């Protein structure tokens, strides 16, 4: 990896990592605090909204820190992809593509950027590289995507119980 490549990957890791940390902290300390985030998750059909809120905080902040450090990069990317899959499927999909209509555009960009980063690897300016840990290419992408899909499927299978429309709702 050239010096330019290493800096480019570091920039992607830094922006993605900081974005995830700030996003997680906002779920905890922003607007409605953890209680508001819990209500929002419950409103999406996820059981145990408070648990979901805290899981999102720890996942987002943890993944962000790992990305900043360049540590366990495919797993950090998997965490971001999984969070974005859940958000895209439950909160944004029905609104279409565009973010200004609360669509899935933003979560798609973060998820695909994470997958690409897992494939590229963390670069030479990372703890993974310092520890001579090299999991990138198809293996890095496969690990990130596989773990993300499995985690998302597990979360949805265990906790997602959307409200079923009543006969009156279906007639409207």
UniProtKB/TrEMBL annotation:
InterPro entries: DoxX, DoxX-like_oxidoreductase
Keyword Cell membrane part of the UniProt annotation: yes
GO cellular component: plasma membrane
Protein name: DoxX family protein
Protein keywords: Cell membrane, Membrane, Transmembrane, Transmembrane helix
Domain of life: Bacteria
Keyword Cell membrane: yes
Transmembrane stretches, start-end: 7-25, 65-91, 103-125, 137-160
Compartments it resides in: Cell membrane
The family this protein is said to belong to: Belongs to the DoxX family.
Record's bilayer topology term: Multi-pass membrane protein
Pfam families: DoxX
